[in-house]
Specification:
alpha/beta; TIM Barrel; 8-stranded parallel β-barrel; two-stranded antiparallel sheet; 43% helix; globular
């Protein structure tokens, strides 16, 4: 696989006002980020449709997207309509990120059933088939274990054809295999725990070697067209790498050495982070790198040096 050029996304949750939200979007564009992203959880997070259309209206080239949307929060027919509407209203600048859910509090506080992993993965598989069917031309009839669609024409159709880029986030073998077969962009994560939450021990370099080997094997010839993404769970630009790793180790309950080994952490000077990202692209083909909002400004020199290269 020929290395893809680097591009960068920044993940925001909310802003108190429309003006502040749009200012954040314009700032991300000015700093050279390629995508302005939101995740979907209950609480302070903005709803994806309103938030992303607003961000796109405030900018000229910035792409917008979800990283990621929990498919359990909407019926797939409604999700297809909302996603296509966003793509139309942003004039084709939308990337649809999808996940099977992991944050237990979302389910506990809303009463949405948090089903066993196998059930959620099967629901994800059916949802993806319905989305692609409704984005395509002509009416869709679908009969699965969890959903049935009878002669429904998905409208509006997305501006990007056959559909907007689909990002699938996953860390377990079933989701990784599904994403390798169906996604345009694969956001490789640590595995979620059966009872909710994330397994930080599953975020090691060795674990990611296994994940990427599975992706390459499963994707086969289509691997060349896949984009591999990493969402950094911690980004710290600092000259005291060791101390920053020690501080993060307590939060993740792993050793400082494991923090520095994690593909989902970037800790060090700008020079060190640039070097780390080039190594990760060479090792895992990871060219699409996303950071959380709190790191947007500090990480900008890295974006300036690597974007498009």
């Amino acid at each position: 696989m020929t290395s893809r050029k680097f591009r960068f996304g920044v993940l925001h949750r909310a802003a108190p006002t429309r003006a502040e939200w749009q200012t954040l979007a314009r700032r991300a564009e000015d700093l050279g980020y390629d995508t302005f992203l939101i995740s979907e959880h209950f609480g302070v997070h903005l709803s994806m449709g309103a938030a992303l259309v607003s961000a796109a209206e405030a900018t000229s080239r910035l792409r917008v997207g979800t990283m990621v949307c929990d498919i359990d929060f909407r019926h797939p027919a409604l999700l297809a309509k909302e996603a296509a509407s966003i793509d139309v209203l942003t004039e084709g600048r939308f990337e649809l990120g999808l996940g099977a859910g992991w944050m237990l509090s979302d389910y506990q506080q809303t009463g949405i059933p948090f089903d066993p992993p196998g059930v959620r993965v099967e629901r994800f598989r059916e949802t993806l088939a319905i989305l692609k069917g409704l984005f395509a031309d002509g009416p869709l009839t679908f009969r699965g274990k969890q959903f049935e669609i009878e002669g429904l024409e998905g409208l509006p159709k997305p501006k990007q054809r056959p559909h907007m880029p689909i990002v699938i986030g996953g860390g377990g073998p079933r989701m990784i295999e599904l994403a390798a077969r169906e996604a345009d962009i694969l956001s490789v994560a640590m595995q979620s725990l059966p009872g909710g939450g994330l397994d930080w021990l599953n975020a090691s370099s060795a674990a990611f070697d296994e994940k990427l080997a599975l992706i390459r094997e499963t994707a086969g010839e289509r691997y060349a067209s896949l984009e591999v993404s990493l969402l950094m769970q911690k980004t710290v630009i600092t000259d005291d790498r060791g101390r920053a790793a020690e501080q993060q180790a307590g939060a993740w309950q792993i050793s400082p050495e494991a923090v520095l080994d994690s593909p989902l952490a970037l800790i060090g000077s700008a020079d060190q982070v640039v070097e780390d990202l080039e190594v990760r692209r060479g090792r895992w083909d990871a060219s699409y790198v996303c950071v959380f909002a709190e790191a947007m400004e500090a990480f900008a020199p890295v974006v300036s040096r690597l974007a498009g290269k």
